[in-house]
Structures are given as structure tokens and as C-alpha cells.
């Protein structure tokens, strides 16, 4: 059977537990609170003609486990919250930082997606990636990136 340029999406799910402090312009500071975050990774690509596989999902699991391992069971701070780090250190609390103003669902989805994309973008069969982070039922944010495709000649 020939593939004929069809694309497929491979989906893999993960979860981690973290706390964060979020704020909005409308409602202000929500204070320190935690979630059971769920991460869904969607890899778009064209299956290899010999194996009919886009990518080995164990590779995705290994990469995501490293990324999530830096977030799991920690307080995640954004760049605008670094002043809190000293307080957390004095209290003996474990934290990590991400390069975004705060650790919102949007920021976490882009943070995880960017690290993963930088590892996968050279894979021949991988055309795109989407990472979705949820902090509750029907409450999630997704970040997506695709390889630049040249227009048809």
C-alpha cells in the first residue's frame, strides 16, 4: 500500500502535579494553588514507507518524561515571580522557573512544546507538533508548530 502524501497524528498523554501562582488583569492574583496537569502531545507526520510509523512513541515518552520531571511536584514560577523564589528557598519548598511571565496553561503548553519541537524537528517524518496542557476538565491551552513547507513549484 502506498502512502500518497497522507498525514497522520500520533497522540500520547502524560500528567504531572504542580503548583503555580497566576493572575489576570481583570481579577488580579489567584494565589498559590495546585493542579493535576494533563499534557497531550500530538505529532503530525507521514509514516515511513517501510515501517508505517511516524515516530517511535517510546522516544516521545522519554523526552516528555525529562521535561515533566523538571515540573512535577514543584512550584512553577514565571519570570515576573522570581522575587518569590527567596521566600520559597527559606521555607524549604521546591520550585522551578520557566521563561514566561507566569506559569499559565498557555505558557506551560508552549514551554513543553518548544523543548519537544527542538528535539523532533529534524525527524524526517515529523511535520508538526501540538502540545495541550489542561488543569481541569474542559480547561486547556494548546501550542502548535509546523515545519515550514515550500509552496508547490
Key terms:
single chain; 153 residues; alpha/beta; Tetrahydropterin Synthase, Chain A; six-stranded mixed sheet; 3 helices; elongated
Write a concise synopsis of the structure shown.
With about 150 residues, this protein is α/β, with parallel strands linked by helices.
Q: Describe it for me?
A:
It is a single chain. The chain has 153 residues and is α/β, with parallel strands linked by helices. It has one domain: 6-pyruvoyl tetrahydropterin synthase/QueD (Tetrahydropterin Synthase, Chain A, 2-Layer Sandwich), CATH 3.30.479. It is built from three helices and six strands, in the order ββαβαβαββ. It has helices at residues 57-69, 85-90, 105-120; strands at 8-24, 28-45, 74-77, 95-97, 126-136, 139-146. A six-stranded mixed β-sheet has the order 4-3-1-2-5-6. Helix 1 crosses helix 3 (105-120). The longest helix has 16 residues, at 105-120. The relative contact order is 0.19. The mean pLDDT is 90.
Amino acid at each position: 500500500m502506498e502512502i500518497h502524501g497522507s498525514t497522520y497524528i500520533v497522540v500520547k498523554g502524560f500528567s504531572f502535579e504542580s503548583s503555580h501562582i497566576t493572575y489576570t488583569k481583570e481579577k488580579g492574583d489567584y494565589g498559590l494553588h495546585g493542579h493535576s496537569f494533563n499534557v497531550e502531545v500530538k505529532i503530525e507526520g507521514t509514516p515511513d514507507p517501510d515501517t508505517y510509523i511516524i515516530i517511535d512513541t517510546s522516544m516521545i515518552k522519554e523526552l516528555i518524561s525529562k521535561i515533566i520531571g523538571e515540573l512535577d511536584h514543584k512550584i512553577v514560577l514565571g519570570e515576573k515571580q522570581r522575587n518569590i523564589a527567596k521566600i520559597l528557598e527559606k521555607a524549604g519548598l521546591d520550585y522551578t522557573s520557566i521563561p514566561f511571565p507566569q506559569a499559565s496553561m498557555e505558557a506551560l503548553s508552549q514551554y513543553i512544546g518548544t523543548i519537544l519541537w527542538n528535539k523532533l524537528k529534524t525527524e524526517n517524518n515529523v511535520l508538526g507538533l501540538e502540545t495541550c496542557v489542561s488543569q481541569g476538565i474542559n480547561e486547556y491551552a494548546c501550542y502548535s508548530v509546523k515545519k515550514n513547507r515550500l509552496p508547490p513549484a
